Amino acid sequence: MSEAAKPDSERGSGRRSAPPVGHDSQQRWTAVDEYVAARLLASDSALESALRASADAGLPAIAVSPPQGKLLHLLARLHGSRTILELGTLGGYSTIWLARALPPGGRLVTIEAEPSYARVAAENIERAGLGDIVELRVGPALEQLPELAAQEPPPFDLVFIDADKQTTPDYFSWALELTRPGSVIITDNVIRAGALIDPECEDPRVEGMRRFHELLAAEPRVSATTIQTVGSKGYDGFTVALVTPGAHRS
């Protein structure tokens, strides 16, 4: 939610954007998130400090919600991920959730375009005791990804794409190059409050997500689905794609 990571709030175009969400609905979704977090997520000083430090530094409040962070953590554990690539570090909140899912010897590479965000993230990651596990690379993702690929790292088991939305198709293409059959690619903010299917919406972020879904539909190397979500972050959704060995999707 952060190239990797210009905040959505800084990317207005004057063109029709996502429709507004009703105040009552948003209040209810937020209250349910808080209910879930209070019962299923333990108090965590490192994660709470990461959110406070990000807010104090003026970072946009677009990190994943606590239940979403826990979901990422569980998916990484369920998949047995040993190597993770994250595009869009922001303040490192999702980075901490993902890095904690790694087994001993695991590693996580995260890319953040904005140096001021990266400084906050580095402090948060270090405070969480994950500095030896996480490699934070600073610079636009489309510059960092070719450099990373040139180093010929082992394929990543899991990729989390949460950077600027209009460039998501390019990020996904790079993710395919850096993974293997059996890897999982998770992409956030793909529904855009339903504007994904609004033919009158010309928001570049929405158009990016349409191109992303068209890419998925034509890509024989993945089997994917998109799930709509509501919560404290509003109405949106995420895509889960499994990298497959052949030319057939199921």
Q: How would you describe this protein?
A:
There is one protein chain. By secondary structure, the protein is of the alpha/beta class. 40% of the residues lie in helices and 18% in strands. The radius of gyration is 17 Å and the shape is globular.
Short description:
By secondary structure, the chain is of the alpha/beta class.
Query: Which architecture does the CATH hierarchy give at level 2?
Result: 3-Layer(aba) Sandwich
The number of distinct helices, counting runs of at least 4 residues, comes to 8
Mean pLDDT: 92
Shape category = globular
The fraction of residues in strands falls at 15-25%
Give me the CATH superfamily.
Answer: Vaccinia Virus protein VP39
Topology-level CATH name? Rossmann fold
- The level of helicity is 25-40%
The number of domains? 1
Architecture blueprint of SSEs:
Elements (H helix, E strand, L loop, with lengths): L22 H18 L4 H12 L9 H14 L3 E5 L5 H7 L7 E6 L2 H13 L6 E5 L2 H10 L7 E4 L6 H10 L6 E5 L15 H15 L3 E10 L2 E10 L7
